[in-house]
Design a protein that fits this description.
globular; 577 residues; binds (3S)-3-methyl-2-oxopentanoic acid; alpha/beta; 4-stranded parallel beta sheet; binds magnesium ion
């Protein structure tokens, strides 16, 4: 691409590079070593979530350099910047987890502000863990600037006692140690080998789920998310992404040309057919919201219903992200969906081609191991299911991948906990009974605040061998590695007086993932009477600061727990400034 083909008068960066009044601005660019020619080329923000918080992000800096090479090859001027992350694997199981979902908004906001403040013309965004992937994609759609997303790649699996393991095994081993079926010494051995490299958690947990989404939604180049983080072969995709964003800029193809209701449906398909993370039920509505598109939890779940589950990945299944990559990765899965009429082929993608064009020549058959055939799937409907009923009028979500038909319904008395810590303590001490439905409330977006993931508690149950003998419901969330009958995102949340706030110990709860129902056996009259007696939102520890601010602004899980109201999606202006 020749820089001359860019009409500067339509580039946002003209505000910082052109005309006599911008001499001071240019002097800053000279200070950073840019040449006159580079200053007058398009400015491409290269946003990364690099930091030393977790293995998920540690390889992003290397990959950003490759992106910059690609941008330069295509005669753009890359400007690298970083934003924050909060990494669930380390935030899990304590107060820190409240910062996780709020970090998604902080990432979107900081990327937006950096791009606006410096008038960059387009963006390549690199992200490596649960909240940074959706946060980065939200910023792209919010800015509606030419955008290419690059995933940082998955971690390699660890080896323990002759089998592949991930951090999920370590979380579950904590429960086994509590139950006395694993020694402290064995636990220590496992923790040392479970995570052998850079990269995000290895199963189809939240990061890898959202990485599949990035390709399916069209913001990332096909197959770019597949190679594990330590593979330097990733860098070729990074370079290509740098070149691709220049092509999008030249053709004025922006994020909202890519992210449409159809591409959101494509994204939901890939979540369902891979048994992805329930968090997608939160992040897809949030990404849609940035485009002013209504695609809520229940809409996502409608797509799940008509999607077969045929890719066998952990935690419901057997394999890890590296295995999927080795048999053809996300493009192969997308091609199979397309051939069966389950994917919209006319959506625009980051390559500048439509999805169908980009998938031309891609192998579209099962490999029989990781990817099963669509005719003989692992199950006929998606690995993730939406539920609705008098206990969750705004819906709820459960991962059913790996569950048998019989296991998909559950009825039992409630054992109610007011927060995760209380539940974890009770689980640790085995103060619960088989057949019960554990209720953890006050963990919603507003009431937590921060809608914590509760992998420590759910993994402890699995590790104790009780994962299939109890069910768990919450207005909070689960990690992508959670398994068992664990229903999250129950809405409305307790903090706003949702029915989950009204449940008492012993109330009978009925869950049916086949029918998509979640009910408490209480009459409407009884619920109404209890609501009158309800004491109101439980006080939180956060009277000021970021989490207080978050709690004031955040909306319900059904709409993606976003922090700015509906109409903003339509009013945002960036690239036209
Ligand atoms: C292992 C699970 C990971 C840390 C996570 O939080 C997720 O996938 O959501
Ligand atoms: Mg997570």
């Amino acid at each position: 691409m020749d820089a001359k083909t860019f009409d500067k008068s339509r580039l946002v960066s003209r505000h910082v590079t052109e005309g006599p009044s911008r001499a001071p601005h240019r002097s800053y660019f000279y200070a950073m070593g840019l040449t006159e020619e580079e200053i007058h080329r398009p400015f491409i923000g290269v946003a990364t979530c690099w930091n030393e918080a977790a293995p998920c992000n540690i390889a992003l800096n290397r990959q950003a350099q490759a992106v910059k090479l690609g941008v330069k090859e295509a005669k753009g001027t890359p400007r690298e910047f970083t934003t924050i992350t909060v990494t669930d694997g380390i935030a899990m199981g304590h107060e820190g987890m409240r910062s996780s979902l709020a970090s998604r908004e902080a990432i979107a906001d900081t990327v937006e502000l950096t791009m606006r403040g410096h008038a960059y013309d387009a963006i390549v965004g690199l992200a490596g863990c649960d909240k940074s992937l959706p946060g980065m994609m939200m910023a792209m759609v919010r800015l509606n600037t030419p955008s290419v997303f690059v995933y940082g790649g998955s971690i390699l699996p660890g080896r323990f006692e002759g089998r592949d393991v991930t951090v999920q095994d370590v979380f579950e081993a904590v429960g086994r140690e509590q139950a006395g079926t694993l020694s402290a010494c064995e636990l220590e051995k496992l923790e040392k080998v479970a995570c052998p490299s850079a990269g995000a958690c290895g199963g189809q947990f939240t990061a890898n789920t959202m990485a599949c989404v990035s390709e399916a939604i069209g913001l990332a180049l096909l197959n770019s998310s597949g190679a594990p983080a330590p593979y330097e072969s990733r860098d070729a995709f990074c370079e290509a992404s740098g070149r691709a964003v220049m092509e999008l800029l030249a053709r004025n193809i922006r994020a909202r040309d890519v992210v449409t209701i159809k591409s959101l449906e494509n994204a939901a398909r890939v979540v369902a057919c891979t048994g992805g993370s329930t968090n997608a039920g939160l992040h897809l509505p949030a990404i849609a919201h940035e485009a002013g598109i209504r695609f809520d939890l229940l809409d996502v779940c409608e797509v799940f219903k008509s999607t077969p589950y045929f890719v066998d990945l952990k935690p419901g299944g057997k394999y890890v992200a590296k295995d999927l990559y080795e048999v053809g990765g996300v493009p192969r899965v997308l091609r199979m969906l397309l051939d069966k009429g389950l994917l919209h082929g006319d959506c625009m993608t980051a390559s500048g081609q439509t999805m169908a064009q980009a998938l031309e020549g891609v192998e579209g058959t099962a490999d029989g191991k990781v990817i099963h055939s669509i005719e003989k799937p692992l199950s006929k409907t998606g690995g993730v299911v939406g539920l609705k009923g008098n206990l969750a009028p705004e819906g709820a979500i459960v991962k059913v991948a790996g569950m048998t038909g019989k296991e998909m319904s559950f009825e039992g008395p409630a054992r109610v906990f007011e927060c995760e810590e209380d539940a974890f303590e009770a689980v640790k001490k085995r103060q619960y009974e088989e057949g019960e439905v554990i209720v953890i409330r006050n963990e919603g977006p507003k009431g937590g605040p921060g809608m914590r993931e509760m992998l420590s508690t759910t993994a402890a149950l699995s590790g104790q061998g009780m994962g299939k003998k109890v069910a768990l419901i919450t207005d909070g969330r689960f990690s992508g590695a959670t398994r068992g009958f664990c229903v999250g995102h129950v809405g409305p949340e307790a903090a706003v007086g949702g029915p989950i706030a009204l449940i008492r110990n012993g109330d009978v709860i009925k869950l049916n993932a086949k029918k998509g129902t979640i009910e408490v056996k209480l009459s409407a009259k009884e619920l109404k009477a209890r609501r009158k007696e309800w004491a109101g939102q439980r006080e939180t520890l956060y009277g000021s600061g970021a989490l207080w601010k978050y709690a004031q602004l955040v909306g319900g899980a059904k709409d993606g727990a976003v922090t700015h109201p509906g109409k903003d999606g339509e009013r945002h202006v960036y690239a036209d400034l």
